[in-house]
Every structure is written in structure tokens, then in C-alpha cells.
Write a structure and sequence with these properties.
6 copies of one chain form a homohexamer.
Chain A (H helix, E strand, L loop, with lengths): L1 E4 L9 H15 L5 E4 L2 H13 L4 H23 L11 H9 L4 E3 L8 H11 L5 E5 L20 E3 H8 L14 H10 L3 E5 L2 H9 L5 E4 L1
Parallel strand pairs in A: 1-2, 1-4, 2-3, 4-6, 5-7
Antiparallel strand pairs in A: 6-7
Chain lengths: 220, 220, 220, 220, 220, 220
């Protein structure tokens, strides 16, 4: 099981991190194995914004975002205690070896040009995960933009091709990656990963894992 | 100046590598600075195909493709002799440091999930290149598929958004990356890179560098 | 010349970073060579505080502080542009090689258990610096605590042994390092480094470099 | 148990790799522990030949051969699936740590100047192997050159000193290493390794492991 | 349990190393887990002295001392055989991962500016050790200098603050580090480590582990 | 120009290191470029002997010898001061990059199974050296063993094949490598390196470089 955790989880009070850690601990005791991928969140955006104004190029700003995501990953390792692999892998190869130890592995970003969504998809592919949960700041995918149309309806599932079309028009600067970036989409497609998009809350993630109906399932 | 070299350059006789090396040497003496990115070509596809049949996952197959592209990069370093940075960088940070030495730097792939096109775009962004030449197995972008429609017309320029739309439907397995992958497109967009798509022949590449009309220019 | 820059420089508006960058650029053109060491500042303290509450051990918290200091170093590299070595060394050996290139090298932290003051002192020793400026949040060393005694007098110089005695009673948790930590003091002593403690403002640092009387000189 | 696998295993159809993988899996289930060393084969020779014509020096060509051998090792890891350590060690230290995990470890080359035979001998020494099987393209050692003398007799054993004398006159360019290179011979000698030279076929390797009479045993 | 072993252990006959190894093996079988830290000893001092005369700076001399301590660590790994992690970690992160394997981990030095005492304290903090034994060339801490005052009394315990005061006046060149360097003292303080200072003899170390009264306990 | 320096140079007083450093400095000012390779000497043999008695395997003992040779290399870097590349490369790739800087590069060993002679030959091949001086503890190659036959005659040149034959019978344990190990011989052969065997004294090395008749020239 691979879960991409929205960077916003790390922006607020540590309570949210603690809650999620408790959920993961419980599920590990039930035999579930995890790779968690921390996003960069508001901290990453702050550093990136300042770096851009100081003249850093976009791929270096990507690296700054990756570093902040790794700091968030360290916080989560703290929350998980002895269950967590004590170090944040920086390559897929390190991830593979870390996963072999049987511990919960926590990743931040890996490489410029790839959002943490893509990292999570690559990780899911590498560890042959049964499920890739993309825990975001929204409840799932809507038929229309819910900010503009209050009557927009949450979709319980969406076809990958349709999702590709919807996501095809988003902005591309470092720190502004979207729901699922194009690489994430292609990896889901090429390895036929089972993917659910949900809101990043411990109770909702638990439901998704238990197979209850939450968020939006991506159908290939 | 960053040039992505089609893997097919390395599939044939070494004559093509030698010709290209001579061109680069001449231009370096005229003061042009280069980052070259070698593709994987038929060798990469052969290894990937066998690995897939043996059960390796897609991201590991990406890594195999990256390794073969690096072997091709080594061959090109041989052709360039003392003008080349003697080692193939494996991260953008190493590229940055290598480029500082003033030598021609030759890259293969960098990271799973990214084609060598994306690598070339990231490199162009990092070294703040004036021009990113994507040297491929076709003459440029056509208005229709030239294999199916003999009357298809080569476009002298194409809008990035239009290109995105055209390339939005290609296959996604390791070793089958296309003209410009989605990451390459976004990097071109976010850093407003000047990009020309041409056929990978020394004389045509020279024309593109000299500013003559060849291939298809991507307009942002 | 080695300058330790207070982390507070990076907490405020980027204006301060820009000012300092302009000063460094001017001095480099006059032939001065620099190693700059960025502190972690409020961002580091925030991450460390949250990590401690989540149960991370003190040496891991040190590593978190080091990572944040390196992010600050990246921002400064942005401000310095082409004059800066484009990457943040993570060992003294990397520093040595980076310094050989003739560029301005910017460091963050290096190793748990050592503050960025100690890093700056080790760097000064390694590059055989003529001067080690410790740019802090205070004007220099006072004869009494200036927060408690408004009549406290700024000392224009202080004996190293006396300084050692004064600093001998400070707290020791990650993120709360003081003016000069014990290692910094011993390195100043063993290699007889010339050290000035000043407030971290571009104009004051310039005065210190020009040899004007500012801050407190450490006398060995 | 350490087995050096002839590069020719990887030149043909993947059927041979699959057969060998099945044999290894069976023996692992019986409790045998393995380090496998993949040779470079025809692919390596092809890359080396082209690199030599392009002007690369011999030790760089050795590195190219090493990289190809590592690609072959990755294919074998695919064939072995979960029983294999998922990454190819690049130093003896990494081998040691990989071997500690209890998995089958697959190596390619390690260092210029050493053939994959020498790598296998060093690996056998490091993991204190009971047996070092050198699986080659011949049935074993003959009393005369079997290509020239059809009546040449396969020796069931040969003294190390005699073998040294026979092998003392072979060519030395990258990619043309012989049956056992001088380093392999010295390592066999200094650590008194039990070594058998056999043809690289799954059924013959199995016989050698079971203690049946095949190939040529090296007597120290 | 973390034990810092005086470098003098490695200066004499290997008998002392063997004795200590036997003790550790016995205790491991009883379920105790160890990180051992080897000092540099006379060999380190010899290399450092020669390097200083040849003009190397103090922090490079620190690195030479670290390398020698790692060689001593390798000898101890030899003595411990299969119980030891087969490689000497060079960062705290590597230590953490090595410790996870359940083996006895042996360290030398880690970073310039830190004695092997500080390394041992950081290691104790990182693995959350119950006890940090500092095995030295003296029986413990005395009320006066026992070399000058034959009537000096061995203290069974000493307050950390008092110890800090006593150790505050020692020399600072590479290779001359003292009983506990200032970083070690601060780490003991910040993480409230239980620390005993004893003579580096197998029988005395065993007593300290068993809780018998030997050496000097540091009271926080 | 590549010079292999006998480990015995580092065993005695630092005077010999200083003398050699002065010679190198003088020749660098005359425009000669150097790679120097330090042997391990008596220190290496001492550590290896103790490690063998403690049960370390031969390839680990090789690594210990490599580490000691690197310490000797550091001493020489001290003697050379600013002319030397400040760090000891640990791979041929690092050597290549270090050599590009124009500094004198000093190596110790590189890889188990290869003596520092082989390292020097590989280095000579890699930097395309005009001359490889093997500075040893003897005056050159004799027609008979000079220890047994006082009338043995120093050969002014020797055919490579003859040398191979003579050296074919030496011992093989770590730390006991001979005049030129088999790999060194093959590298000399495959890359047609010009090699002279002389005694390791500054004045004799100078003569060899100036083209005067000293030691024994290896004829291919």
C-alpha cells in the first residue's frame, strides 16, 4: 500500500501527523505494509517563492521542494517511532532496499521535474503495491470545478483517460503541482495501478484502505 | 546549447557518432558550449524487452534504459576526446558542476519516469541554455501522421499547446517514450525554452544551430 | 574570508539576502575570496520543535537543523548568481574541492553535534582564512547581559579564555546553539584564527572586512 | 556458493536465463546460499569494440564492460524474482551487506583491470564460499587445445600451478579476458578456494553443485 | 549499550582485542546489544604528528585520526566475527541502519572537530542506549591529578557541571582529545545519558555492565 | 607521468617525503604533470598481519592495506601543499576528474585484489601518461637474486615476457605484493606503457625523468 500525503498535513498542528501515525501503527499491526510519501506543503511553497525571486532556476526550485518534503518525511518518521525505517530514501533503489527490511518507509521527493505524486506512483510500481491512495486537499474528483459550481458532484469513479483530459491544462512551475501530474498518470496507466483520490484525513484514509466508498476511484 | 540525440545515432555504424563529434568539436572552437544527451536506442529497447519478459517492473526497466543511454554517452565522450567532460553525470547537481568546468558534458538518462527528452529539457533549464535541439528520427512535426498520409506536411513551427494535444495519446511503457514526453513539454513551458525538433543528422543539426530553417520550432 | 551568517538573515524579507549578496559580489570583484555559512534561523527552530514533540532524538533534530540551514544556503546561492559555487557542500572534503574552483562557496551545517559556528570555524581552518566573521543577532560581546543591564558595555575585544568562561553555561538542545559553541572556540584556539563577532547586517560586515572598528575581536 | 556465469548465457534467448533461475530457486529452497556473477558477453564486446575505435582508453573500456555485465545481472535478478537482492552491488562492501540479508546476490563487474572471474573469486573469498563454480563456454580444461587437436582430452582435475602456466600467455585487452585471469588464480591460491570449471548450462551446474563429476576441478 | 574503547586497546598485542571480543560475544548471547567506538590510539597520534610537520591543517589531521580509528574498528570487527556488522559506518545515518540489523556495530570517528568520545555520545543518543561506558586509560575521575598527588582519591561519582569545569582547560590539537570533549559533555547533558568512566580492560568493562561499582559515574 | 612510490618512503623519517615533494614541486614548475601512487609500507603490513590473526578474510585485509596507502597519500599531499589536489581519489573516475584540474593527484590503493602497482598502471593508462616509473626498494631487475648471488647483474632493460616469467612465482597474500603484479604487467602490455623500475630515492627518480640511464626499462 502506497499513500501520497498532502503537504498540508504538515502545515498545521502536529495533531494531524500524530493521528495519521496512530492509524498507520494500527494497520501495521494488522499486517498491512506501507510506503508513505510526504508532500512539501506551504513550507515548500514559501522557500520556492523566495528562491524564485532570488533568481534560482526552476529545476533547482524543484530540488528545494524535494528537500522540504524530506523534512516533512522526517517528522512523520518521528511520529511512527520504531515502526518506521529510520532514514528517508533518496532514490528508488534505496526505497527498494528499505522496503525489504519490512519497516514502514517514508519518502519525500526524488527528482526535479517529478511531483511527489509521481514519486508515489513510481514507488507503488516498484513495490508492486495493491493500492495507491492519493490523499489530497480535496474530497476527490468533481464533474465540474466545485469552487465555481456549488452544485458540482463528487465522482465515485473516473476513467483514466477522462482524468488525463481534465488535468491537461494546469500550471507547471515548481511548487504548484496538481492532483496527479502527467508522469503519475502514465505510471498508473502502464502498470495498471489501483488508485483512489481522497481527502487527507486519517479517518477517510482508513475507510479507503478498508474498502469503503470514499473519494474517487481511477478506472483504467 | 543542449542537444538531445536520438538513440538511433548509436545503433548504426560509429561513422555517425564520428561525424557528430567532428561537428561539435568545430563549434566548440567557435565558442559554443554544449550539453549533449544520448538516448538509449535499439540496445535499450532490446534489454528492456528481455527484462520485461523476465518479470522486472516498469521503473526498473526505466533504470536499465538509463544505463544503456549512459553507455551511449560514454561512446560519444570517446568521440569528443579531450573536449568532453570525462564522466557521465548521474544527477542534475553533477551536471551543474561538470558544466562549470567549461567542457562539453554528455548525459544519458537521469531518473525513472523521465525520458531522455525530459532530461534534456531539465538540463537546458539548469544551464540556462539559449536553445534546446531535440534531434529525433523524424524531420520534425507533421500536420498528419506521415506514415499514413504521404501528403502530410512538415510544420515549420507549432504552438506548444497544440503539440501537447497531439502528443497526449501515446503509449507509456519503458523504452517507448515519444517525441517529447509530458515533463519535457512542461519544462519547455515553465522556463520558456527555445526548442527545435529536427532529424538527428550532423548537417541538419548544424543548420539548426546556425539559425537556418530546418525542422519544427516550438512556439510558446 | 569565512563569514557565519545568522539564521535570522533568512527569516525576514529577502531584501536582507539581496543586500548581503550585493556586498559579497562587490568584494569578490575586489579580489576577496569567501566561504559563507548559513545558519538555520527560525525555520530550523520550528521544524526542530515539532520533531522533538513527535519523539525524534536530539541528533536527528540536529540533522533537521542542518537541512534547513542548507536550504538557506541555496537561497543565498540564488542571490549570488554565477559567482557562487552552484551546490552546497556536505563535507569538509567537498568544501575543499569547491573552494579550489575559485567561486564563493556557501555552506549550511555539516554534522550533528556541531553548530554552524563550528562549521564556520572548521571551514576557516580548512581554507586557511585570514578572518572569520561571526555575524550574529547581537552587536558583539558585552561585559554584562545587555537585556538585564541597560548600562552593559560592548567590548571591543575579549580574550578567548574569558569568552570560553562566559559561554560555558548555555543550553544544549538542538536548535539553541549559542554565540560560539565549544568546538568553534577550540578550533579558533588551536589554529589561532582571527575572529570578529558582529551584528549580521551588510554594512556592518563590510566595516569588519575593511578593518574598521565594529563588534568584538576575539584575542587569543 | 559462488557461480561465475559466462556472458554467453545472456546473449541468447532468455530461455537459458529462465532455466538457470529455476535451478537456483530450487536450490535456495533446499538451503543453498548463492552469489552469482554475470559476465558481459557479446553485448559487452560490441560496446567495447566501438568504444576502442572511438578512442577510449582500455581502463574506460573495462568500465563499459562492467556496466554491461551489471545489466546482465539485472536481467538475472528479474528471473529470480523475490529471492534476489533487488540491486547489483558495485563494491565488495556492498556485496557483504547484501549477502547479510540472506538473499541471492547477483554481481556484474567491480573494477577496471579485473575480469568477472576475479570478481567471483573475490566474492567467494569475502563470503567464505565452500565452492566457486566457474561456468564458461567450454567443458573444462583440456590437455591440448581442443580446437586444434580433436583428440584433446578433458582433464578431470588440474593443479593450480599447471593452470597458471597454461593461462600465462593470453591476450589482455578489455573484453577479451580468459578462463581465469591472474588475479582469480592468486585469490584461489591465497584463500585455498575450491574451484570447478564447467560449461555454463543449468544441468551441468546442478551436477557440479551435487558433487557429481563434471568439468575440471582445480587442485591447490 | 555504547562503549567508547580507548585507542590504547589497539596499540598493544592483539590479546586485549581478543579478550574484549570474547566478552562482547558472551554478552550478546545474553541479549545485550552494542555499539562500540574505537579510538585512534598511538597509531593515530603518529600519523597526525607527521602530517602536522608536513603542513596539513588541523581539520585534515582530524580526518587522518578518524581513518586510523576506522582501521582499529576493522580489527575489532575481525575479532567479533559473524556477530559484527561487517562494515564501519561513516555517518550517524549509516549507524542507524546498521543497528537495525541487530548486529554489533563498530564505529571509528565520524567528523573533524569531534573526538571519538563525542561520536560515542552521539551514537548513544541515536540508538537510545541505556548506558554509555567511556573506557579510557585511567581508572576514572580523581579529586586531584593522580600523577602529581599520590594521595588523589578516585571519585565514585561526579556531577556533570563539576566535570565540565575540570575538563574546561585542556589542549585542543588533533590527536590530543581528552577524557570527554565538550560536545560529549553537552550530548550527555541534553539527552540525560547514563555515563560511566572506567579503565579500558575487559574485566572492568564487564563489571560496569553488570552494575558493579567501578570507575566514576557521571551524575546529571 | 605516473610514479608508484614504494611504501617504504613513508616508513622512515619525513625527510624522504620532503625531499621527494621538493623534487615534484620543481618539476611541476618546469611543466611536468604528475599522478603519484603511494604504497602501504610497513604500517600496512602491520595492520594486515594483526587483522589476519584476528580472522579477517584476505580481501578485507586488502582493503585495510588500501586505507593505509591512502593515509600515506595524505601525508604526501601535505608535503606538496597547494600544488596537490587536496583529496585522495578512491576510483579511477575520481582520478580522471581530479587530473582535469591540473593539480598533482596523489592516489593510495583502489580495489581489493590489485596492488598499488596495478593502480599506478591503470592510472598511467587513464591519463595517457608518457612514462610510468615504478619506484621500489631495489635498484631494478637483476639477472639473478642479488640476495643470494652477490655477482648478480642489474639489467638495464628487460623484455616484458621475460619479466612476466620471473615474477610468475611470488606469494599472494594481502600486503606481500611484489615488484609488478600480474595486472600491472597486463596493463603495461595492453596499453604499451613505457615503464622503468628504479629505487625509490628522489635523486634517482629525477634521473629517470630526465632520461638518464637508471634502473631497468621494461621493453614490450
Amino acid at each position: 500500500m502506497v499513500i501520497k500525503l498532502s503537504g498540508s498535513l504538515f502545515d498545521s498542528d502536529i495533531l494531524e501527523i500524530t493521528k495519521l501515525s496512530e492509524l498507520i501503527k494500527k494497520l501495521v499491526r494488522e499486517g498491512v505494509r506501507f510506503v508513505l510519501v510526504a508532500g512539501g506543503g506551504a513550507e515548500a511553497r514559501k522557500f520556492i517563492k523566495r528562491g524564485r525571486r532570488l533568481g534560482l532556476d526552476e529545476s533547482t526550485l524543484d530540488e528545494i521542494g524535494i528537500q522540504v518534503a524530506r523534512l516533512n518525511a522526517m517528522l512523520l518518521i518521528g511520529g511512527l517511532g520504531d515502526l518506521a525505517y529510520p532514514s528517508v530514501p533518496t532514490t528508488l533503489e534505496e526505497l527498494t532496499l528499505a522496503f525489504e527490511t519490512g519497516k514502514v518507509v517514508v519518502l519525500g521527493g526524488l527528482h526535479p521535474g517529478q511531483s511527489t505524486n509521481a514519486v508515489a506512483a513510481l514507488a507503488a510500481e516498484r513495490v508492486k503495491a495493491d493500492l495507491f491512495i492519493n490523499a489530497t486537499d480535496v474530497d476527490g474528483v468533481y464533474d465540474r470545478d466545485p469552487d465555481l459550481y456549488p452544485s458540482a458532484k463528487l465522482l465515485s469513479e473516473i476513467d483514466l483517460k477522462e482524468l488525463k483530459r481534465i488535468l491537461g491544462r494546469t500550471s507547471t512551475k515548481a511548487g504548484t503541482y496538481e492532483l496527479l501530474d502527467p508522469i503519475a498518470l502514465r505510471i498508473i496507466e502502464r502498470s495498471k495501478l489501483k488508485c483512489i483520490i481522497v481527502r487527507c484525513k486519517a479517518d477517510i484514509i482508513e475507510k479507503a484502505i478498508k474498502g469503503e466508498k470514499v473519494g474517487t476511484v481511477v478506472v483504467i
